[in-house]
UniProtKB/TrEMBL annotation, chain A:
Pathway where it operates: Lipid metabolism; fatty acid beta-oxidation
Residues marked Important for hydroxyacyl-coenzyme A dehydrogenase activity (site): 505
Site residues, Important for long-chain enoyl-CoA hydratase activity: 158, 180
Short name of one Pfam family: 3HCDH_N
Name of the protein: Trifunctional enzyme subunit alpha, mitochondrial
Coiled coil (UniProt feature): none
Domain (3-hydroxyacyl-CoA dehydrogenase C-terminal) ranges: 551-646
Entry-linked CDD domains: crotonase-like
TrEMBL record, chain B:
Entry GO terms, CC: endoplasmic reticulum; mitochondrial fatty acid beta-oxidation multienzyme complex; mitochondrial inner membrane; mitochondrial outer membrane
Keyword Mitochondrion: yes
Protein name: Trifunctional enzyme subunit beta, mitochondrial
GO biological process: fatty acid beta-oxidation
Gene3D superfamilies: 3.40.47.10
Gene designation per UniProt: HADHB
Assigned protein family: Belongs to the thiolase-like superfamily. Thiolase family.
Pathway: Lipid metabolism; fatty acid beta-oxidation
Subunit field text: Heterotetramer of 2 alpha/HADHA and 2 beta/HADHB subunits; forms the mitochondrial trifunctional enzyme. Also purified as higher order heterooligomers including a 4 alpha/HADHA and 4 beta/HADHB heterooligomer which physiological significance remains unclear. The mitochondrial trifunctional enzyme interacts with MTLN. Interacts with RSAD2/viperin.
Keyword Membrane: yes
Its EC number(s): 2.3.1.155, 2.3.1.16
Described purpose of this protein according to its UniProt entry: Mitochondrial trifunctional enzyme catalyzes the last three of the four reactions of the mitochondrial beta-oxidation pathway. The mitochondrial beta-oxidation pathway is the major energy-producing process in tissues and is performed through four consecutive reactions breaking down fatty acids into acetyl-CoA. Among the enzymes involved in this pathway, the trifunctional enzyme exhibits specificity for long-chain fatty acids.
Entry keyword set: Acetylation, Acyltransferase, Endoplasmic reticulum, Fatty acid metabolism, Lipid metabolism, Membrane, Mitochondrion, Mitochondrion inner membrane, Mitochondrion outer membrane, Transferase, Transit peptide
Length: 770, 471
């Protein structure tokens, strides 16, 4: 849908953490190596190296053939080896840990290593090995300094906080965090125990439960790092190379200082910090904190995600019963969590996201440097915003000055909110805005490399715009249509150059929603597709590419579900209940609210189009109900009234009483056999999943991975289920088909399972995700 | 601009000021003899169809650490003193001066066109127009080149250019909220309205707004940027301290030998006549090594001792077309030849202006680095980074789009009478000092070409070729 589907915060940005990608696996070296002389061991090492600079050992992490370092078995083994040598070497008084890759200290544990484990015990063992190693570092008689540049996440952060001192580069790439929770895990190498002691209980909970990335300057304030190093500009080397070298020099200085006691690792704590620490030392206060945090987590996760609750439990055990108990339960819980289906689903999404950050069409012939966006509405301005801040010159064109002003203000506001959050300086904001040209005419379109239209969803308007644009753009320029339902081939029908026409379906709000659905027609050229994907990736989007058809993939899946929502409402379930039932299943936004967000007029429009294209399968709820709502002006959030009443500044919105009459008018009898809460949930979800499977069956989708990503990131399909296809696998195709048949018996063909699902149901070994 | 360094510098033990007076790196002493012996085969840089512009004279009042003798004056007082000094030295008839241009950085709001106020007070004709320019640390360079442009274009024959800075007093403002309230108060008509406005004033309204010492675009102070630049070029604390010591020692030597002839005495009202710069204090490496970093704490390399202090001062220069000067019977000191302005990334290359400007101005003049006999570079911060950058092929190729490096100026021709580090750096006034010093050194050392270069806030820079007027 063109309009809002607010994705769940937690998955908003999957960790750069495990952005590990598959790392090359070299067989773990035996411990025998330790007996060989140092020099030969040095030669054998591929992941960790060690330089001795005077009395300071510099340990460098460098996972070969990878952009990031990950804590793989190999790296851990070599690291242990190197540290043992350092401890044995009398000439070395202190050590610095640093990465050879400027953009990554250690980005986390090697996911493949975790996924290769068959049982919880195996994972627990991994965790305990890590704990032991880091405990040795913590108790090392020679001070160890972590020199952090780039991502320091998950296991990487745990290594850093086991050290005695931390120096970090103050740049945008340097982020610290514990994103394990986003993968359904917890920090499993002592992190749950060390973090609360280091930054205090509230901050530690915040980090571990949200998985948020913390920038270096913030980390310094929190006490997570001790010193910052400003990034350097060009000198006699590239800025990156020299900055990390400088970081090393500074870290060596501190390592030496710690060893000869001229530097103290003790931080001076502010009054507030000391007060908080004092309060947290009181068991009574701690209990209160646990309680508050627990109820917050319950409210947000509806109990669907086991990891956050485990994190609270593990932290609690450590603080109340001591380190040994804490480490033990941390390792055990880590093992248990790693084999949960939630964790598997979240990891699946992570891998899917990595997959969708690649351009399978290759590098386009011509990079898009100038982009024109038609229509300065919510969508158009949103697209402009995510383009200008990536350095793309963007023309924003509207037909009225008022519309244009609104759009330009939206872009300004979006950027300015980043200034307020200090992730952007006001100067950067201004220079970004200089990439934006707002105008009412087609001036400058002769230089555009791509035009994205976000005009009113009406085929005649789209045709008119396409013709106007084609008259002014250069031959290489791509025409992309941001439509949520109109088939691209239909739009391209009036084009003189259909190979340059493509669909780019953004989701609102564009600056928040990660998904971009790209739609290719039979005539769209490979290069056009490559260019569109490249632009999407540059805009920071997770991109899925689907074939053309009514509703493409995302809108088409949502259609039957929303139709079912209407039927449920007609059956007398009130909107609040519908919302509660759907959020309880894991949808981030309740189903009735979703319609309000999308806009009832838009939903009507789409439902009609899709109804025409697909026939009775898209029936269920009465479209006349929507039409009456539109007539009454109940258009949803944008109109202030839909199923709910929306008022500025009022948080608890109330049900729109004007809807009672409408709902009453379209009331249908409910069949108690299929109207339990669970049945309602399954009616919504099975229709969604069935339609998704049909998209795969018909080749709209090229693979289940993109299907899952599209559903979760575009439509808010419950992330804990990993998407419709992963859900079909974990729930069981057989069971799904059974449910569909049950509802089919009551409601008819809308629930008829598609052939692909039937095939899967008939052969249990068949899975969408192997 | 700069930072509050003076107080830290003052903490240096006084005794050490003379301790290193005997600093014996003889970097420059021998050069005059060699240069004098050199045969004069170099061409002159005059261009056909363009008027030759000459410097007749350049003066400056002594540069003082801010907060000392000039503390109670206003900027135009300093400028006035420099202008009067120029008049005294040259005895130029007042009505001959066609135009006056002055450079300044931190403006006193009462005298925002400080050029005009100073000129009127210095006894210039009230018929001589004057304007003020600003371009951070190269403001007086801009004033000079503005004059050069006017003369070359045939619009003027005689221009006085100069610069002034008074860091002892800078405008500190009320907060924006307070200003808004006060301005609205002006418009309030009834007592009720006034009271209601006054009642809205909150304690935070009284927080003063200091003039920014930081780069506006990046919010980074110049010292901090200089420290990063030093790190980027791998320049150690010791190298910087050694350079600072060199600067102070050479300045001291020049002062003692009476080479700083551009200084004119200034009788400060209510105080004694000031005759000498007061920031020159050669210390020892040991003393300097004790200072803590001033910007990147605790491990940076830029300290109060190895960067320039906040300075009060003013300079003035008489520029004419060659024929006018000759017609009036003057013996010009030097030609002002080709000049360039450059700008680059204000974040990571803030102070590399000289690096960019040097090869460009040489190319323009058809000279090479080895043709230059004296180098006068502004050396407030980061001068060593510039020397390294100029000597790096990698930097030239990757950041300047040049085939090869221009090369680092040989130190025996470089700032041999001290520089901004030791003599002081009144932002708006330094450019004229550089040019006139280059001219004096050319004469003293027997060279022909001088190269003046300076960096400025905003990531800008300037360079100019000064050619000795045939003797």
């Amino acid at each position: 849908m063109a309009a809002a589907v607010r994705a769940i915060g937690s998955l908003g940005r999957l960790p750069a953490a495990a952005r590990a990608g598959p790392t090359r696996h070299t067989p773990p070296r035996g411990y025998a190596c330790r007996n060989i002389s140092t020099s030969s061991a040095l030669q054998n090492r591929t992941h960790v190296s060690c330089d001795i600079k005077g009395d300071v050992a510099v340990v460098r992490f460098n996972t070969p053939n990878s952009k990031v370092n990950t804590l793989s078995k190999q790296l851990s083994a070599e690291f242990t080896d190197v540290m043992n040598e350092i401890w044995a070497n009398e000439a070395v008084k202190s050590a610095v840990l640093i990465s050879s890759k400027p953009g990554s200290f250690i980005a986390g544990a090697d996911l493949n290593m975790l996924e290769a484990c068959k049982t919880a015990q195996e994972v627990t063992q991994l965790s305990q090995d890590g704990q032991k190693m880091l405990e040795k570092i913590e108790h090392s008689p020679k001070p160890v300094v972590a020199a952090i540049s780039g991502s320091c996440l998950g296991g990487g952060l745990e290594v850093a906080i086991a050290c005695h001192y931390r120096v970090a580069t103050k740049d945008r790439k340097t982020v610290l965090g514990t994103p394990e929770v986003l993968l359904g895990l917890l920090p499993g190498a002592g992190g749950t125990q060390r973090l609360p002691k280091m930054v205090g209980l509230p901050a530690a909970f915040d980090m571990m439960l949200t998985g948020r990335n913390i920038r270096a300057d913030r980390a310094k304030k929190m006490g997570l790092v001790d010193q910052l190093v400003e990034p350097l500009g060009p000198g006699v080397k590239t800025p990156e190379a020299r900055t990390i070298e400088y970081l090393e020099e500074v870290a060596i200085g501190f390592a030496r200082g710690l060893a000869n006691k001229t530097v103290s690792a003790k931080r001076s704590r502010g009054l507030m910090q000391r007060l908080t620490d004092y309060a947290m030392a009181l068991p009574f206060v701690r209990q209160q904190v646990y309680k508050t945090v627990e109820s917050k987590v319950q409210k947000q996760t509806k109990g669907l995600y086991p990891a956050p609750l485990k994190i609270i439990e593990v932290v609690k055990t450590g603080l109340d019963q001591g380190n040994d108990a804490g480490y033990l339960i941390e390792a055990q819980s880590f093992g248990q969590l790693a084999v949960t289906k939630e964790s598997k689903a979240l990891m699946g999404l992570y891998h899917g996201q990595v997959h969708c950050k690649k351009n399978k069409f290759g590098t386009p012939q011509k990079e898009v440097k100038t982009l024109a966006v038609l229509g300065a509405g919510l969508m158009g301005a949103g697209i402009a915003q995510v383009s200008v801040d990536k350095g793309i010159k963007t023309i924003l064109k509207d037909t009225t000055q008022k519309g244009l002003d609104r759009g330009q203000q939206q872009v300004y506001k979006g950027l300015n909110s980043k200034v307020k959050k200090k992730s952007l300086t006001s100067f950067e904001r201004d220079s970004i805005l200089s990439n934006l040209m707002g105008q009412l005419d087609y001036k400058g379109f002769e230089k555009a490399d791509m035009v994205i239209e976000a005009v009113f969803e009406d085929i005649n308007v789209k045709h008119k715009v396409l013709k106007e644009v084609e008259a002014v753009i250069p031959a290489h320029c791509i025409f992309a249509s941001n439509t949520s339902a109109l088939p691209i081939s239909q739009i391209a029908a009036v084009s003189k150059r259909p190979e340059k026409v493509i669909g780019m379906h953004y989701f609102s709000p564009v600056d928040k929603m990660q998904l971009l659905e790209i739609i290719t027609t039979d005539k769209t050229s490979q290069d056009t597709a490559a260019s569109a994907v490249a632009v999407g990736l540059k805009q920071g989007k997770v991109v899925i590419v689907v074939k053309d058809g009514p509703g493409f993939y995302t809108t088409r899946c949502l259609g039957p579900m929303l139709s079912e929502v209407v039927r449920v409402l007609q059956e007398g379930v009130d909107p609040k209940k519908v919302d509660a039932i759907s959020t309880a299943f894991g949808f981030p936004v309740g189903a009735a609210t979703l319609i309000d967000e999308v806009g009832v007029d838009v939903a009507t429009h789409v439902a009609e189009d899709l109804g025409k294209a697909f026939g009775p399968r898209f029936g269920g709820g009465s479209i006349d109900l929507f039409k009456l709502m539109v007539q009454k002006g109940f258009l949803g959030r944008k109109a202030g009234k839909g199923f709910y009443v929306y008022q500025e500044g009022v948080k608890n919105r109330s049900v729109n009483s004007g809807m009672d009459e409408i709902l009453e008018k379209f009331r249908v009898p409910a069949n108690p056999d299929v109207c339990s809460d669970e049945d309602i949930q399954m009616r919504l979800v099975t229709r969604f999943v069935n339609e998704a499977a049909m998209c795969l069956q018909e080749g709209i989708l090229s693979n289940p991975v993109e299907g899952d990503i599209g559903a979760v990131f575009g439509l808010g399909f419950p992330p804990c289920l990993g998407g419709p296809f992963r859900f079909a696998d974990s729930y069981g195709a057989r069971q799904l088909v059974d449910k569909l048949r049950k509802y089919e018996a009551v409601y008819g063909s809308q629930f008829t399972p598609c052939q692909l699902l039937l095939d899967h149901a008939n052969s249990p070994s068949k899975k969408f995700h192997q | 601009m700069s930072s509050m360094l003076s107080s830290a510098l003052r903490n240096l033990p006084v005794s050490s000021a003379w301790a290193a007076g005997a600093f014996t790196r003889s970097l420059s002493c021998s050069s005059p003899f060699q240069a004098a012996a050199q045969p004069k085969t170099k061409k002159t840089l005059g261009k056909t169809g363009v008027k030759n512009v000459v410097v007749v004279e350049g003066v400056r009042i002594p540069f003082l650490q801010s907060g000392t003798t000039y503390a109670d004056l206003m900027p135009h007082d300093l400028a006035r003193a420099a202008l009067q000094g120029l008049l005294t030295r040259t005895s130029v008839p007042r009505d001959v001066v066609d135009y006056i241009v002055y450079g300044t950085v931190i403006q006193e709001v009462k005298t925002s066109n400080v050029a005009r106020e100073a000129a009127l007070g210095a006894g210039f004709s009230d018929k001589t127009p004057a304007h003020t320019v600003t371009m951070a640390c190269i403001s007086s360079n801009q004033a000079m080149t503005t004059g050069v442009g006017m003369i070359a274009a045939g619009q003027c024959d005689v221009v006085v250019a100069g610069g002034v800075e008074l860091m002892s007093d800078v405008p500190i403002r009320h907060s924006r909220k307070m200003r808004k309230t006060m301005l609205t108060l002006n418009r309030a008509k009834t007592l009720g309205q006034k009271l209601s406005l006054i009642s809205k004033i909150r304690p935070d309204y009284f927080a003063p707004e200091l003039p920014a010492v930081a780069e506006f675009s990046t919010s980074e102070t110049m010292g901090h940027s200089a420290d990063r630049l030093a790190a980027a070029f791998g320049i150690s604390r010791l190298e910087q301290d050694e350079y600072a010591l060199r600067s102070h020692s050479l300045a001291k030597k020049a002062q003692d030998e009476g080479l700083l002839q551009d200084v004119v005495p200034f009788k400060v009202p209510g105080k004694d006549t000031v005759t000498k710069d007061n920031g020159i204090r050669p210390s020892s490496l040991e003393q300097m090594g004790k200072l803590k970093p001033a910007f990147v704490k605790p491990y940076g390399t830029v300290t109060a001792a190895n960067s320039s202090f906040l300075t009060d001062g003013a300079s003035a220069m008489l520029i004419m077309s060659e024929e006018k000067a000759l017609a009036m019977g003057y013996k010009p000191k030097a030609y002002l030849r080709d000049f360039v302005y450059v700008s680059q990334d204000p974040k990571d290359q803030l102070l590399l202006g000289p690096t960019y400007a040097t090869p460009k101005v040489l190319e323009k003049a058809g000279l090479t680095l080895s043709d230059i006999d004296v180098f006068e570079f502004h050396e407030a911060f980061a001068i060593l980074a510039n020397l390294k950058a100029m000597d790096s092929d990698w930097f030239a190729q990757n950041y300047m789009g040049r085939k090869a490096k221009v090369g680092a100026p040989p130190l025996d021709k470089f700032n041999t009478w001290g520089g901004s580090l030791s003599l002081g750096h009144p932002f708006g006034a330094t450019g004229c000092r550089l040019v006139i010093t280059a001219a004096h050194r050319l004469k003293k050392e027997g060279g022909q070409y001088g190269l003046v270069a300076a960096c400025a806030a905003g990531g800008q820079g300037h360079a100019m070729i000064v050619e000795l007027y045939p003797q």
